[in-house]
Structures are given as C-alpha cells and as structure tokens.
Amino acid sequence: MNHSFVVKKLNGDGLIKINSNSLDLGFGKGSDVLSMAELGFEVDAVNNNAIEIENFKSELNIPINLNYKINIIDNNIENFVIEKNKYNCIIASNSLPFIASKDKVLEIIKNIAEGLTEQGCFYITIFGEKDEWRENKNMSFFTFDEIKSFLDSLNLNFYHNTIEEGYAQTMKGDIKYWNIFKFIYIKK
Ligand SMILES: C[S@@+](CC[C@H](N)C(=O)[O-])C[C@H]1O[C@@H](n2cnc3c(N)ncnc32)[C@H](O)[C@@H]1O
Fold first, then answer.
1. Which of 4, 89, 127, 174 is the most exposed place for a label (fewest CB within 10 A)?
2. What is the whole-number distance in angstroms between the Cα of residue 134 and the centre of ligand 1?
C-alpha cells in the first residue's frame, strides 16, 4: 500500500508503535486511517460528515480492507471524548481549523495530548492568519507564536513543525491561498 504522506513520515521516523491504538479526528477520505490500519493499528476514526462516512464505509467493504481494525465514529470532534492514555498516535490533519472557537481548539489539543500513551505522538495542523479563509467565522486561525507557545506549555517533547503558505488546491479542486502550520509532538 502507498501510505499517506503523514503516516509515511511518522512511521519512517520511527515515531509510531504498530499494533497499538490510534485516532484520526476528521478523517476526510480516510487515507491516514487506512494507512494506519494497514500498519496494524486499531484506528478510531471520527468524522461528522455523513457523505464521507458512507463513502468510507463502502471503501472498507473492499476485500483488501476487510481485515482492518477501524472503528468509524460519527461525531463532532468537539463532543468526542478522548480516552486518556489510550493512543500511540493521534492525527488531526486539516480538521481543527473548522472549529470556530479557538478556546475549544486549545481544549481539544490538550485532550489530544492527554490521550497519548507514553512516547506516543500527535500530528496536527492549524491555519495561520494569512490564510485566505481567515474571515470565515466558522473557522479558527492562530498566529504561529500563539499556537507554538501553547503547544510548548503542554509538557511534551517538540519534534517537528513546518510553516507553509502559498497557492494550492482545496479538496474541492479550487485554488486558494493557504497558511498552514504542521506540528508533531511526542509525549514524555
Ligand atoms: C479538509 S478535510 C481533511 C481530511 C483529512 N484529515 C485530510 O487531511 O485529508 C476536514 C475533515 O474534518 C472533518 N471535520 C471538520 N470539522 C469537524 C468536526 N467539528 N467534527 C468532526 N469532523 C469534522 C470534515 O468532515 C472533513 O472530513
């Protein structure tokens, strides 16, 4: 299987322990979920988009995917209770920016950190204030320093971040100006 970019990075850097539990918050088409499941993870996959959930369920019925341990959870990220110390890996890729309240996003990130087992890691993305969607009141945007200092306060080990901006395609195929911060932290 051609693993997703994120899972390739986490696995290639030896950050994840296969045959354990992982969580994907806002799984979209499910490429990170499938990659983790293929590696042997039992994956809890959260999404609140009915069409994406149905599409992903159909994909899981394809014979090569039948043995994967994937629990699809139809819920809002805001309402999903992250069990403490359960997950070796938590991914929230381009999903947290779709939550309007910045305080809620910070609370979720704190819960993500608490959901990790020792040496577990998370990969999350946050949109910066230069992003073209910045006026959208249903979304949240942070300055880099704001989010980085919050993450650094969580008593985790910093592993990696990128600051990206420029024109690129949306999932729908339009072109927009993106400003995205990507972070990997590891639980002590
Ligand atoms: C831009 S897509 C990203 C999908 C995937 N993680 C990726 O990186 O390709 C955002 C995803 O987050 C989900 N999402 C956004 N807000 C959500 C919320 N409040 N609760 C649950 N899922 C949410 C959307 O349904 C969609 O699947």
1. 174
2. 17
Q: Is 94 in the pocket of ligand 1 (CB under 6 A)?
A: yes
Q: Are 164 and 176 in contact, with CB atoms under 8 Å apart?
A: no
Overall average pLDDT of the 16-32 stretch = 96
Let me know how long the chain is.
188
Contact 89, 25 (CB under 8 A): no
Show the DSSP H helices in 77-124 as ranges. 102-115
- What is the tens place of the pLDDT at every residue in 60-96? 998 888 899 999 999 999 999 999 999 999 999 999 9
**Alpha-carbon distance 30 to 10, whole Å?**
16
Does ligand 1 lie within 6 Å of residue 48's CB atom? yes
The secondary element (H helix, E strand) that includes residue 59 is helix 50-60
Separation CA 161–CA 86 (nearest Å): 24
* The listed CATH number (3.40.50.150, 2.30.30.140, 3.40.190.10, 3.90.420.10) that belongs to domain 5-187: 3.40.50.150
Pocket test for ligand 1, best of 52, 95, 105 (most atoms within 8 A of CB): 95
| pTM for this predicted structure | 0.97
